[in-house]
Amino acid sequence: NELDVVCFQVLLGDVGAGKSSLVLRFVKDQFVEFQESTIGAAFFSQTLAVNDATVKFEIWDTAGQERYHSLAPMYYRGAAAAIIVFDASFERAKKWVQELQAQGNTNMVMALAGNKSDLLDAKKVTAEEAQTYAQENGLFFMETSAKTAANVKEIFYEIARRLPRV
Ligand code: GTP
Ligand code: MG
């Protein structure tokens, strides 16, 4: 089908921000309280119907541990889209945005996910601050929860909607 689109995508962000949990929710509709820290990277795929197209996401879930940082370009180099995930601290997310703007694909669709929205008191960054940052830097922002599934499908859907050809 000529309306089918493959979207290579990468998830980046701090250790424990919930990258693997978001992917697991999206791909298997599951959540685990004690998700193991990712080693290197893990690969997933999932399809989503968007308008008249079927978008096949080919997703690299990277490891947030700093010692794997040097591997990241292998995963974002070919990516058409990225989700930058943060929970408590926003600083690492900003660094990833800068790195992608400098070294990622031009026209990369970028989403900023403020994850763990179910844990409201743990939030140190207000949604407004993240929203403003996103607007100024050409991303879109959503608060997500892998635990409750809030906005998980929606963030992938919005990425798909913003891809060229969809
Ligand atoms: P690395 O692989 O080490 O980079 O971490 P990660 O970003 O993949 O985080 P991971 O998905 O492993 O989640 C870390 C912990 O946070 C796990 O214990 C998850 O259960 C928990 N977690 C993830 N997302 C959520 C969420 O939306 N809400 C709550 N309450 N906990 C979450
Ligand atoms: Mg992980």
UniProtKB/TrEMBL annotation:
Taking the first listed entry, what is the main subcellular location of this protein, grouped into a coarse class? Answer: membrane
Q: Can you say where in the cell this protein is located? A: Membrane
Entry keyword set? Membrane, Nucleotide-binding, Transmembrane, Transmembrane helix
Keyword Membrane tagged: yes
Q: What is this protein called?
A: TLC domain-containing protein
Q: Which organism is the protein's source?
A: Brassica rapa subsp. trilocularis
The full protein's residues present here are 262 to 427 of 453
